[in-house]
Amino acid sequence: MTDVKKTSGISRRTAVKGIGATLGAAAFAKAIAPLTSWAANQSIDEFLQKHYQELTPAQMQKVLKRLEEDTKKDYGAEVTITDPKPQPGVKFGYALNLSICVGCRKCAQACHVENNHDRKSGNSYIRVLEMKKGSLDIEHGKVDYKGPVPKSDSFYMPVQCQQCDNPPCVDVCPVEATWKEKDGIVAVDYNWCIGCRYCEAACPYHARRFNWTKPEIPQEEITPVQGYLSNRVRPQGVMEKCTFCMHKTRNGELPACLQACPTGARVFGNLLDPESEIRWVLENKRVFVLKEELGTKPSFYYFFDE
Amino acid sequence: MNKPAATLPPPHLSHLNSYPRFIWRMMVLATEGNWLFYAWMIGLSAVALVGLNAWAIQVTNGMGVTNMSDHVSWGLYIANFTFMVGLAAGGVMMVIPAYLYHDDDMHDVVIIGELLAIAAIVMCIGFVVVDLGRPDRVWHMLPGIGKFHFPVSMLTWDVIVLNGYLLINLHICGYLLYQRYRGRRPNPKIYVPVVFLSIGWAISIHTVTAFLYQGLGGRPFWNTALLAPRFLTSAFVSGPAFIILALEAIRYLSSYKVGDGAIRILVNIMRVTILINLLMLASEVFTEFYTGGSHTAAARYLYFGLHGFDALVPWIWSSIVLTLLAALLLLCPKVHKHPVMLVTACCFAFAGIWIEKGMGLIIPGFIPSTLHEIVEYTPNGIEWRISAGIWAAGLMIYTLAIRVAMPIFSGEVSLKKDIEDHA
Q1: ipTM of the complex, rounded to two decimals
Q2: What PANTHER family does the entry give (chain A) (predicted)?
Q3: What is the tens place of the pLDDT at every residue in A118-176?
Q4: Which chain A residues have a beta carbon less than 8 Å from that of B219?
Q5: CA-CA distances (angstroms) from residue B340 to A202, B243, B245?
């Protein structure tokens, strides 16, 4: 030890350490090399973008413009992205008639197209359960049913985000990337979510979907009318969910799943409007909600005709 | 310096002078050792780099390169994270006898446990970061510039307690080592209150981590009040088990004296905690299977398989067998006198808890899913590589910490000797 220290100039030990450090640094650079292509696609503006609720209208306009340009660049599609706000005096609710749902899954397919889901995964915010008559216990449901529908011994229960009044997913988010809007819709800021997936674990309805990869959609299949908080093409690594087609419903249209339903099993409307159809259903039908015992207070109701 | 200081330490040497010397000395110590040390460190570096490379691939191509899905949205990373929190909490099991019961044998080696806590917390943070879909947005969680959803989100509590525990242990270890290096008696006023804080804090890190799962009403497998106590007892098995292994390794590989007393106390702790752990397991299994009903589907999946799906069954039974064997070995009256038997018992206990508090806890929470779909999960190469990388990085930190701490603690390296050497 001591004679190494006293040697003037560079000792052998120091030289070996130096070579080791150089090799280590080179190996480190090689190991993180895949990150360079990823980093090249990240912009400073996107990195520094503020939370949705903190953006001023002017900043929001810039963000929307940037997102439109990015969609053009990444997917070749001309899209219009807006940020429709909740209307005063509106709280959205959904009801579904289990007596007439035939389990055709047109709703799930319409959702897939409308919301610009990744084509390969065939994702949708809606899952349809085929249930044996005689039980409402979803343990006895099946999502991967095949063959002609409806089967005589079964009924069908589509499940999507219940837009809970007491949403567990919102409580658990560590960065407030998901919250409840004034019209009852639980929204996600795709540019704020860190991708921890705690909300997905917390949701009792399997209503959340994660972007495990960058969504792949052919240019001509991209739905061009988009909302910042709803159906715009999501970035890789963030959570998403049903927004009751906010970009349509906040402009007075109906959600895509309802428009696609061939039997009229779906009822959508303003829970605060006593004249609305949904209020009529709630007042005149036997209505129930899923997993009521969890205290999530869904705004999504199920009913039977008799 | 014209005259080497004969008495220690020279009163004129201020912190401004001695602290940089201390840091430098630690860095020199950390890069010196015998061939075994270099081989071990090079091996760990290689594994860590392989893990780093796998993580870079994951960030670039998305979490889709893992085997996780919307059904099983947490996998090997969070399983390891949960286990690692226990290891960090278990590190404190040396602190309690040392400071609460003034056990002298423990005082000499208590830093081994505290350094383990530091390494384990760094690994915890690593496992959480690699589980994020957007690690570039971690700053969104910083209070002030981001949005910290405190006190509602249990994850924010976890961030606070884990980082707090890291700082507490860094303070204790850093202070004790620096004072030893200077040849001074550590001032109890500066560190003993922090030691007591660390005991309570160790309980809190595992309780909060259990609450993370326990608080989810939609996941019946986790939604049990027994989760936090079970976390703690298993932590107080795995922590001491790892420390015993580290002490035996130090005994075997170095000239430092590790007292029998310390190992005996750790064995006694494990004897009690491993039995309480088994009792709680039995209690939970009884509730699940005697009551029946749909909420037991996850437990049925875990222990016996469900509708033909049984990926976890061999895992959990090997965990139970390993834990039982460890308990039997530990109950032998003279186990602490037989290194091979003791090391075997500790390895069995450690592996048993790793399975139980890892894959055995996290995965059944997702199977069946909340809509009762069964989608199975087995970690893939990327996930194993990243996890191995973090383990390697953690072991590097722990090895270096012990490599630096032991000579300073034993007095082999000190400020006085350094000054004399340079004179």
Answers
A1: 0.93
A2: PROTEIN NRFC, PROTEIN NRFC HOMOLOG
A3: 999 999 999 999 999 988 888 889 999 999 999 999 999 999 999 999 999 999 999 99
A4: 201
A5: 45, 15, 11
